[in-house]
Amino acid sequence: MEALMQEIANHLATRLRGLRKAQGWSLDRAARATRVSKAMLGQIERGESSPTVSTLWKIASGFAVSFSSLFAPPGADAEEGPAAETRWGRDAAGMQARVLFPFDPLLGFEMFEIELAPGAVSESSPHARGVVEHIVVVEGTLGLTLEGDEARRLEPGEGLRFHADRHHVMRNLGEGPLRFHDVIHYLPGAASGDASV
C-alpha cells in the first residue's frame, strides 16, 4: 500500500508540474489560482505530500481540469474507461476515491466510488462554477451539509443532486464504512480532461 501511495504521489507531482508548465505559471501564480499554499504545491511537486481529496479538488478547479484527469496516465482514452485500478488511498480526512469512469469531454462527466471511514468528515471548498454532483449512497449513512442549506441524511439507495460550486461537507454518520457513487457534471468548456498536459 505504501508503494502504491508513493507511485500516486510521484504521478501527481509530474501532473502538477505539467499543468503549471502548460499555463506558464509560477508556484505563486498556481497558489493564487488554486487557493492551495505555495508550500503545499511545492511539496506535491516534489512527491513529498499526499494531498487530501479536498486539496486535489482545489487544484483541479484552479487549473480548470477534471478531477479524474489528475490521475489519468498520458494519452488515456475516456471511452475505454480506466486502464487500471485508479484509486486515491485514504487521505488524512478518512476519504478514499476510486475512478469508475474518467472524465468524458463529450458528455462532460466523470464518476467515482467514494468511501468514508467511520466518523470521517470531508470538507470541500467550492468546485468550479457550474459543477453539479449526483450522489447515491450504496452502504452506510451519509450526512451532507451544503452552504446555505440544512443538513441532509441519506441512507442506502437514496440520492441527491446539488450544485457543488459552493462549500459542502460530507460525514459518515454510521459506525461502519460509508460508500457512495458520485457523478460529477461540468458545464461545457468548464473542465479539460486532457491528460497529456
Structural notes for this entry:
By secondary structure, the protein is an alpha+beta fold. The protein folds into 2 domains: 50 residues, 434 Repressor (Amino-terminal Domain), CATH 1.10.260; 108 residues, Jelly Rolls, CATH 2.60.120. It is built from 4 helices and 10 strands; from the N terminus they run ααααββββββββββ. A hairpin with a 5-residue loop joins strand 6 and strand 7. Helix 1 packs across helix 3 and helix 2 packs across helix 4. One of its GO terms (molecular function) is DNA binding. This is DNA-binding protein. Keywords: DNA-binding, Transcription, Transcription regulation.
Count of individual domains: 2
Poorly predicted tracts of residues? 77-84
* Distance linking N and C termini: 27 Å
> Mean pLDDT, rounded to whole units?
84
Taken as a percent bin, the fraction of beta residues is 25-35%
Strand adjacency order, main sheet: 1-2-3-10-5-8
What structural class do helix, strand and pairing data support?
A: alpha+beta
CATH superfamily name of the largest domain? Jelly Rolls
CATH level 1 name of the largest domain: Mainly Beta
> What is the CATH architecture annotation of the largest domain?
Sandwich
Beta strands, count = 10
Q: Which fold name fills CATH's third level, the topology of the largest domain?
A: Jelly Rolls
How many strands, what sense, and barrel or not for the largest sheet? 6 strands, antiparallel
Q: Tell me, briefly, the overall form.
A: globular
Number of helices: 4
SSE ordering: HHHHEEEEEEEEEE
Rg, Å, rounded: 16 Å
Helix content: 10-25%
Keywords: DNA-binding, Transcription, Transcription regulation
Pfam families: Cupin_2, HTH_3
Organism: Bisbaumannia pacifica
Protein name: DNA-binding protein
